[in-house]
Amino acid sequence: MDIFGIPLPAMLSQLLLGLVNGAFYAMLSLGLAVIFGLLNVINFAHGALFMLGAVLAWMGMEYAGINYWLMLVLSPLAVALIGVVIERTMLRWIYKLDHIYGLLLTLGITLVIEGIFRSIYGVSGLPYSPPEALSGATDLGFMILPNYRAWVVVASLAVCFSTWFLIEKTKLGAYLRAGTENPKMVEAFGVNVPLMVTLTYGFGVALAAFAGVLAAPVIQISPLMGQNLIIIVFAVVVIGGMGSIMGSILTGLGLGVIEGLTKVFYPEASSTVVFFIMVIVLMLRPAGLFGREK
């Protein structure tokens, strides 16, 4: 069976592969949305911290013999601690300044992190094999799906929607949102707002590192791997609405699927379709699909 001259199995396989890419977009854009929505900082260092999560996972396996499952926990925790240091020593001084200061500062942090690892490992790829439990593939009839890629989708969706529930539906999330709008009032309830802000940034970058560990066996690990994704992820956040948690998740998944379909119908446009959509959305709805109009 063909659809617009394209065999159905080829279309379904591209849809599924697009969903895998969309899972990475959703995870990364979610971290960006959390940091911008709750801290009002445009975190350009997100791509470098995504890379850092993947490289630390590789280092744990290569130098310490730590398995994938343990590094899936340890690497995000390590990056979260680095994020806490960054927030405490640098970001806390620019919250009341224009957004451009946060963007420039985090861009500088990106260059430092990438430069350090590039000087140590160069720009060539570092191999990272998927865990044995997730090796092999499953025959879906229309394609052979690697088990690890299926795991990436399941793990990403679980983390994304758990984060949305935590921020939007729990008392802790209510404190986080209130703390950014009226910190004095929240402090009156005995909440340590500066500590809460610090932990929020740590959590946001931990999401990037978690995505990096998930990506390690799928894409080539290199000090510049974050550069290939961060611009697309910023576009995802803009389309979904800056600071919108659910918008980032749904837009990331949706754009991954659209990108996959574009590779079937018009491969030459697959690398630009996300930005074309961004231009249209900004013309029609500047706040994004799920953002709030001011």
From TrEMBL:
Pfam families linked: BPD_transp_2
Subcellular location, record wording: Cell membrane
Segments passing through the bilayer: 12-34, 41-60, 66-87, 99-121, 148-167, 188-217, 229-258, 265-284
Membrane topology: Multi-pass membrane protein
Native source species: Cupriavidus basilensis
Taxonomic classification: Bacteria, Pseudomonadati, Pseudomonadota, Betaproteobacteria, Burkholderiales
Coiled coil: none
Primary location recorded for the protein, binned into one broad class: membrane
CDD domains: TM_PBP1_LivH_like
Swiss-Prot/TrEMBL keywords: Amino-acid transport, Cell membrane, Membrane, Transmembrane, Transmembrane helix, Transport
Name of the molecule in the record: Branched-chain amino acid ABC transporter permease
InterPro entries listed in its UniProt record: ABC_transp_permease (IPR001851), BCAA_transport_permease (IPR052157)
